[in-house]
Amino acid sequence: MKCFELDRKLKTIALVSRLLTDFMYIIDIILQIWIGILEKRRILVSDLLAMSAKWPWKSYIIMDILAILPATQVLTFILFSKTRGSSSLLAKELMATLALLQYVPRVIRMYVSCKEFSKSSTILIGTWTFFKWGFSLFLYIHTSYVLGAFWYFLAIQRQSTCWQLACQSEQNGCKPSTFYCNDRLFQNITTLNYLCPINPSDAKVFDFGIFLDALQSGVVESADFPRKILHCFWWGLRNLSSLGSNLETSSYAMENLFAVSISLLGLLLLMFYLSGNLQQIWAVTVTSLAKRKARRHMELQMKLEIQCWLSENGIPKDMKKVMMRRLQIHLEGEKNVDVNTKSIISIVSVEDRRLIKLYLSWYILKKVPMFRTLDEKVLIEICHSLQPVMFTEDTYIVKEGKPLDKMLFITQGIVWSYGSSNNNGSTRCLKKGDFYGEELLNWVSEVTYLTALPISTRFVKSHTHVEAFVLRAYDLKTIVSKNWLHFSKFTPPSQKQHLAASSLQESWRRHHEKRARAVHLAQLREMGNNKITDEVPLLGQFK
C-alpha cells in the first residue's frame, strides 16, 4: 500500500489544541488594547491616533497577531489536499517553512514575558531562580518536541519525494501525484519498493539520510499517537543534546538545513542557559562567599570582644581559655550578639553563670560593710541571687521618693547619684566597683514585710551605658531569713527576737511548699505521667 492518509482524529486534536493556544493570544491582545486605552483615557480622541504610535504594547500586539495567523491550517486543509504533482512538493515545503517561522514570534513573546516577569519588584529571588530554571527546561523540552515533529513531517515529505521521482523516471504505470489513499490508481505499485528501498535501505538507489529511522521504525505508518509523539520527542531530545553531531545526512539541501538548525538551536539553548542560570549560580556563589566572609569577620570581632570583656571584668587568666572556649560554643551561629554581662550570662550554662557572677561581683560585695564579715557561703548565695541588668545612657535607675526595692552593684559604666534641692543636693559619681542601696540592708534587718520598703532619698541616673548586678529586696529578705544567725549581729537587740521568729516562719513556709510540691509530683506520677520532672512548679506557690 503506497499512499498517504490523513488521520481525522489527530487532525481534530491538532485543530482544537491550536485554537485553544490562539484563544489565549487573542485574550492577551484584547487585554493589551484595553489597558492601553485605560492608560490614555484622558487624552482627546484627536490625539489618540498620534499617541498610539508610541504605545509600547503595539509591538507586542504585532507579535501576537503573527503568532495566531492560520497559515499552516490553510496550507494543511487546502493546498496540501488539492495540489498534485510537483506543486504538492512545493506546498509541503512552504507549509514546513511557515510552520517553522511561526514559532519565532511565539518564542520571542515567551522570552519577553519572562523578562517582564523578572523585573517585577514583588517577586522573591528564590521564586525567580526556580522559575528561570523551569523556563529553561520548558524551552529545552519544547524545542525537542518541535524538532521531533519536523523530523516526522520531513520524513513523510522525503518518502513522497522518492515516490514522485520514481514515477517520473520509470515507466511503471504511475504518474506523479500526492499519493493520497483516495487516489485508488496508485495504491499497489510494487516497483516503488525497489526504487525507494527502506528495509533494507540502499543509499545508492535513494538516500533517506536522517529520516531513515522514522521510516524503518514504522512510526509514520502507525496510527498509535502516543507511539508517534514519544518516539519523535526522544529523537529530537537525543539529537538536540548532542548538538546533532551523530546525524548522518544525505545531500538533500532541506535535510542539511534541518541538521544545521538542530546544532544551532542546541548551541543557542546552551548559551541561554550559561548566560542566565549560570550567572544566577555565580551570583549566588559570590553572595554565599561574601556572607561566609562577613560571618568569619563577625566571629573574629566577637572573639576579640569576648577577650576584651573577660579582661575588663577581671576574669582570672587560668579561667580565660576555658571560658573563651565555652562562650564560643554557645555563641556559634548567633548573629548580632552584643557582648555584655547580661547577654553572656543568659546563654552560658548554670555552672558558668555562677562562676561569672562570682568573679564579677565578689570584690564589690566585699566593699559593703555588712557583707565584709559574712561567711563565704552566705556571700556565694548572695552572688547566685544577683541578676544582670543594663541601662542605656541617661536612664533613671532609682527615683527620689520612690520605694527602694533593689541594691545596685556596678560592673561597667558611670552612674550619677544626686538629691533634690530640698533634700541633700550633693552629687556622687558611681563607677565600676561601686554600689548603691545600702539602706535596704538596714530595712531587711528590721522589717518583715515588703509593704514597708524604704523610700529613696536620691536620684540614681546612668551617665553612660551601664552594666550592673541588682539584688532584689525579696531575694535579700529570703537570704537573711535563711541565714539569720549571720545577720543577727547587725540587728538591734529589740529586733533579734522578731528576726528569729520571721526566719522560723520563712523556713516553715519553704518546708511546707517543698512537701506540697512532693505530694503534687507523686500524684502526677500515679496518673501515669512519668515524664514529669522535679522542676514542675505549683502555681501560685513558687516564685
UniProtKB/TrEMBL annotation:
<keyword id="KW-0472">Membrane</keyword>
<dbReference type="GO" id="GO:0016020">
    <property type="term" value="C:membrane"/>
</dbReference>
<keyword id="KW-0406">Ion transport</keyword>
<keyword id="KW-0812">Transmembrane</keyword>
<dbReference type="InterPro" id="IPR018490">
    <property type="entry name" value="cNMP-bd_dom_sf"/>
</dbReference>
<dbReference type="GO" id="GO:0034220">
    <property type="term" value="P:monoatomic ion transmembrane transport"/>
</dbReference>
<keyword id="KW-0813">Transport</keyword>
<keyword id="KW-0407">Ion channel</keyword>
<dbReference type="InterPro" id="IPR000595">
    <property type="entry name" value="cNMP-bd_dom"/>
</dbReference>
<protein>
    <recommendedName>
        <fullName>Cyclic nucleotide-binding domain-containing protein</fullName>
    </recommendedName>
</protein>
<feature type="domain" description="Cyclic nucleotide-binding">
    <location>
        <begin position="370"/>
        <end position="441"/>
    </location>
</feature>
<feature type="transmembrane region" description="Helical">
    <location>
        <begin position="57"/>
        <end position="81"/>
    </location>
</feature>
<feature type="transmembrane region" description="Helical">
    <location>
        <begin position="133"/>
        <end position="154"/>
    </location>
</feature>
<feature type="transmembrane region" description="Helical">
    <location>
        <begin position="257"/>
        <end position="274"/>
    </location>
</feature>
<keyword id="KW-1071">Ligand-gated ion channel</keyword>
<feature type="transmembrane region" description="Helical">
    <location>
        <begin position="93"/>
        <end position="113"/>
    </location>
</feature>
<keyword id="KW-1133">Transmembrane helix</keyword>
<dbReference type="InterPro" id="IPR014710">
    <property type="entry name" value="RmlC-like_jellyroll"/>
</dbReference>
<feature type="transmembrane region" description="Helical">
    <location>
        <begin position="12"/>
        <end position="37"/>
    </location>
</feature>
